[in-house]
């Protein structure tokens, strides 16, 4: 047992704290949906925020002069990617980032390529930007592993397309794409003159000894047409005080990104700067410990699904803390999300919301104390047993 196990095993009452995750469903439902960890944020962040509060003045902030070097150092150490400080653009959150990025570089009356099933706010980006959707569905292979259909990506890219949104690690299917896969995707984008917006918000959650690989780190040519989005808010569980960082090596694209704000997208708040600095300078030990805890939760979940939920299957989770459960063998007349909510009182994400390829799936967030995870899974098992008995 690590010295941090007691921290992550502790069940914290979150109802009555204005938590979307815990207030969305009825009080008897265990919520395992939105990507929000049920762990107390790192002490170093809490103390940094408290110190700033004690100062007592919350006027308009300016970007801390050393913050860029802090982020550059984190990216170099964790993703083996060397960038210049001027490549950074601070934004309120990643969802703002990918909408802004596509509006900055997407050409009017062209297509936006993406790989469903995918984080559902991305499905709305084409409409917001005035572009046509160009989905290239990931292939669900034996054992639940997902592969990229490169021929289909090539087809979609060649169909009057200008922009590609990559999600890596991929939400919800849990892939951490390999260097070879990223190289192939990058080369397709180069051949068809596509800009890339890479949502890498889960970059710090990769397992089994992997290292996250930003697509822009593969090749200078690819970097020159890529906007990469990272953030501390998933990694350190501070989504309620979010801050995102766009890494934009190409100065022309940086200028386009700034111009795309059009007076609407404001800079980040003072507390966002505080959490970013504290996370990237003092949060590494906490992050390593939570990754170890999450990896054990993932392994427990995989074993439970295999042994206790025979009508459900789960593919490998290489990245994120989100499991993508295939419930199609349950042969339901409704979505499995509705079934588990009603019969097990467990709140999951409806796979159908993630676009093509999502029907019949649910997304489960396993970033929660083991006792909470166990209770939710036992409820799901009970619901399946009752279903079998009634058939």
SSE blueprint:
Layout: H1 5-9, H2 20-23, E1 30-31, H3 43-55, H4 67-79, E2 88-91, H5 94-105, E3 111-114, H6 125-129, E4 132-135, E5 139-140, E6 146-147, H7 150-157, E7 161-167, H8 179-191, E8 195-199, H9 220-223, E9 226-230, H10 232-235, E10 244-247, H11 251-260, H12 270-282, H13 284-308, E11 313-314, E12 322-326, H14 336-343, E13 346-347, E14 349-350, E15 361-365, H15 370-390
Parallel strand pairs: 1-13, 3-4, 3-7, 7-8, 8-9
Antiparallel strand pairs: 2-10, 5-6, 9-10, 11-12, 12-15, 14-15
Helix pairs in contact: 3-12, 4-12, 5-11, 7-8, 13-15
What report would you give on this structure?
The chain is an alpha/beta fold and 391 residues long. The protein folds into two domains: 5-43 and 284-390, Alpha-Beta Complex (Aspartate Aminotransferase, domain 1), CATH 3.90.1150; 58-282, Type I PLP-dependent aspartate aminotransferase-like (Major domain) (Aspartate Aminotransferase, domain 2), CATH 3.40.640.10. It has 15 helices and 15 strands. A seven-stranded mixed β-sheet has the order 2-10-9-8-7-3-4, sandwiched between helices. Strands 11-12-15-14 form a four-stranded antiparallel β-sheet, covered by helices on one side. A two-stranded parallel sheet has the order 1-13. Helix 4 (67-79) packs across helix 12, helix 5 (94-105) packs across helix 11 and helix 7 packs parallel to helix 8. The N and C termini lie far apart (43 Å). The mean pLDDT is 96.
